[in-house]
Amino acid sequence: MDLRCSIFVSIYLQYLQRYKRRMFRGMKDSKEMDEGEMKMSSPSKVFFADLKSKPNRGMLEKLGELFERAGFGKVFEKKDLVAIKIHFGERGCTSFIPPIYARKVVQLIKERGGRPFLTDAGTLYVGGRANAYEHILTAASHGYTLASVEAPVIIADGLIGHDFEEVEIKGKHFDKVKIAAAAVQADSLLAISHVTGHELTGFGAALKNVGMGLGSRGGKQQMHSDVKPQVKEEKCTGCARCLRWCSAGAITLDKKRKKARIDEDACVGCGECTIMCLEGAIAIRFMTDPAAAAEKIAEYAYGTLKEKRGKMGFFNFLMSMSPSCDCWNYSDRPFAPDIGILASTDIVAIDQASVDLINSGGEDLIKKLYPYISWEVPLRHAEELGLGTRKYQLVEV
What we know:
Largest sheet: 8 strands, mixed
Helix content: 25-40%
CATH architecture of the largest domain: 3-Layer(aba) Sandwich
Number of domains: 2
Strand content: 15-25%
Number of helices: 15
Order of helices and strands: HEHHEHEHHEEEHEEEHHHEEHHEEHHHE
Low-confidence stretches: 1-39
Shape: globular
């Protein structure tokens, strides 16, 4: 009994020490995030691998080198549940990141005792990823299965996009953001982002992949629109499902006409009704100022990473860079030549480095693609929030 008791106490003390370290780090990092103290005075390191390969040093080997040089091996602790945020590509898209790269990352995390899973959240628009059922089938059709990548695919905001946690922030646009639950609950996060052009932000990379990607469907409504939802009476069946999900009590049912009505004065614009209406009778209104949308995405990224200080990493793939994001059901001709892969623990620095590499020929290719958008807006706002720094040192591996 004494020996067993001694072993139990030893294990318990080890567990307690590890728990206290993580709790202390979480409290310290949360305070730093809240006070905007994540801003860095010195440049962050961004590691870069070009596409030149040779025997025994192909792109998968280079990906492993980036993983090590960027310090990801120290980010993921043994038994960590590691959320690997990736875009599986909409049905018809052909430019998404090939699953073989995700499998390599999964293997690297497993070698360090981590428990990785691939994840994304449901889309606001109707397509092949609007709910978990369709999303997983779409991912599988693009080669993302347990057998192929050696990790499960878990949709972070649940079956119909209502599994989220509200995270308090001190942003310009939001006091609270709705983050997909699995992303919040994971011990650590690694984002694998395909760099593309984007209609709202000029370009999409790590900030967009994390911020827009891991916002719940209601959160995506908030990011996409400043306009409150309206009822399409011709589609409304009077089922009253939307009433149950309206936290503001802004929706009533005209029992005589059997139609829902939204009181715009009472509506808080949370977007829950748009995703809970199975008839599509409450219009999703994609109307917002692009600059505001870019800042909102940065604030959602801030909320997603708020409790992940020291527990996050980012890969950016500058390959097959289509003019629009992988949410479209096709992939247009790349707007820039293939460049390589970047890795960093700083989400702002890696996106800034991506833009600089794309524009290294002297022409602003992103501005040329979307002249009405400033690609600097999300980077500037993310830096102001304290997510990282736009100053970086590029290190070639």
